[in-house]
Amino acid sequence: MASVPVPLDDGLPPVRYARRVSSRPDDSAADDWFRFRPSWSWLGHLLKSTLYQDHAALDPILRRLLPGDGIAIDIGAHGGQVTRLLADLAPHGRVVAVEPSSYARSVLRVALLLKPRRNVTIVATALGAQPGVALLATPLKRAGAMGYGLASLVRDGRRMAVREAVPVVTLDSLIAAMALPRVDLLKIDVEGCETAVLEGAATTLSHHAPTLYVEISRARLERAGSTPERLWRMLGEFGYVAEAVPAPRPAMADGDWLFQRRRGV
């Protein structure tokens, strides 16, 4: 497979972002585009990412799936709480934190400076079914803070948001470009674009057969033009079976799911 250039972390974004933005999807006003400046809300996001671990309950689940020398890819790394958890579970391995949002990476990078994890590599791109360039929409809260946990390539027109042009590569091309010898675990939380990520990962799924930890939201998948049924069907073709986390839960219900390939497939 031909490799493609991979945009590694590009440092802190330009200074300041405008607080007043338009909620109109077709508005191209300059203040609708992402610009960054440190703020009290940014500091709050940094402190939460650095000092807290909201995903501690995943430790015993992922510990049995990720060996100490394993390779994990955190797709939608956000502020890095799951990235740090994965890095601690694989101290002799490697964690690739994929995050297209400049704002999220500004939190992630500083958090990893304050609490270093030398086995983490940050990659500044989105993942999708096809390579290209896309617009990432990050909603704004009423007080003007960035709702960066909900940043998505599929804009929710009901909420005010800032936009940012981001590169998109396939997961297969990313793994080839980084020459990763194996992939043990994929965590995917991309606000409805999970199916597109997996459509660009056919070689990864068939060759490496990683365990998948995926957040499922029917509403967000449908907004992105997919459905849980389509995602389940696609993974089933690769021999994957689903397990709700925590179990039990109705099939394809909203929440976190583990997908593992059946033995012998």
Entry summary:
It contains nine helices and ten strands.
Your description of this structure?
This protein is of the alpha/beta class and 265 residues long. It has one domain (30-261): Rossmann fold, CATH 3.40.50. The protein has helices spanning 40-51, 59-63, 81-89, 102-114, 171-178, 194-199, 202-208, 218-223, 228-237, and strands spanning 71-75, 94-98, 120-123, 126-127, 132-139, 161-169, 185-188, 211-216, 240-245, 255-261. Helix 1 packs across helix 4.
Report the CATH C-level class: Alpha Beta
CATH homologous superfamily identity: Vaccinia Virus protein VP39
How does the major sheet shape up? Answer: 7 strands, mixed
Read across the widest sheet, the strand sequence of neighbours is 3-2-1-7-8-10-9
How far is it from the N-terminal to the C-terminal residue, by CA? 23 Å
* Envelope shape: globular
What is the alpha-carbon Rg in Å? 18 Å
Q: How many helix segments?
A: 9
Question: What amount of the residues lies in strands?
Answer: 15-25%
> Helix amount, in percent?
25-40%
Which H/E pattern describes the elements?
HHEHEHEEEEHEHHEHHEE
Any idea what the CATH architecture is?
A: 3-Layer(aba) Sandwich
CATH topology name, in short, is Rossmann fold
Tag the structure with descriptive keywords.
265 residues, alpha/beta, Rossmann fold, 7-stranded mixed beta sheet, 3-stranded mixed beta sheet, 9 helices, 10 strands
Write the SSE topology.
Elements: H1 40-51, H2 59-63, E1 71-75, H3 81-89, E2 94-98, H4 102-114, E3 120-123, E4 126-127, E5 132-139, E6 161-169, H5 171-178, E7 185-188, H6 194-199, H7 202-208, E8 211-216, H8 218-223, H9 228-237, E9 240-245, E10 255-261
Parallel strand pairs: 1-2, 1-7, 2-3, 4-6, 7-8
Antiparallel strand pairs: 5-6, 8-10, 9-10
Helix pairs in contact: 1-4
